[in-house]
Write a structure and sequence with these properties.
The protein is mainly β. The chain has two domains: about 1-75, SH3 type barrels (Roll), CATH 2.30.30.30; about 85-115, no CATH class. Helices cover about 0% and strands about 55% of the residues. A six-stranded antiparallel β-sheet has the order 6-3-2-1-7-8, with no helix packed on it. Strand 4 (about 45-50) and strand 5 (about 60-65) form a beta hairpin. It is elongated, with a radius of gyration of 19 Å. The two termini are about 25 Å apart. About 15% of the residues are buried.
Length: about 120
């Protein structure tokens, strides 16, 4: 299993599938299955069994919700030019109080700017 470079809250663009070209925000990342849940992408209809809430209102019926898609089918959108980009990691070493610490920053390959 490869390390997932996409995190919750990133803006991504779909590269393949029925929602190709759509951009959305990542809601959740499922590392065990290499899938991401993107807002407004890959919407499916679920049949929910009828029930009652504590107030007595009926629930159930048809519910439209997002379904996870594979992480290889999405790419992070570069904030500078709003186009999909690959990600690389810049490692910096800083010496503070006699201790050496490393910090890793995600960087867009297209522009070379930091991704927040």
């Amino acid at each position: 299993m490869a390390k997932t470079k996409i995190k919750k809250g990133d803006t991504v663009q779909v590269l393949a599938g029925a929602s190709k070209g759509t951009t959305g925000k990542v809601i959740a990342v499922y590392r065990d299955t290499d899938r991401v849940l993107v807002e407004g992408v890959n919407r499916v209809t679920r049949h929910v069994k009828a029930g009652q809430t504590s107030r007595g209102s009926n629930t159930g019926g048809l519910v439209v919700q997002e379904s996870p898609i594979h992480v290889s089918n999405v790419a992070i959108v570069d904030p500078s030019d709003k186009k999909p980009t690959r990600i690389k990691t810049r490692v910096e070493t800083v010496e503070r109080d006699g201790k050496t610490r490393t910090s890793r920053t995600r960087v867009g390959v297209r522009s070379g700017k930091d991704l927040s």
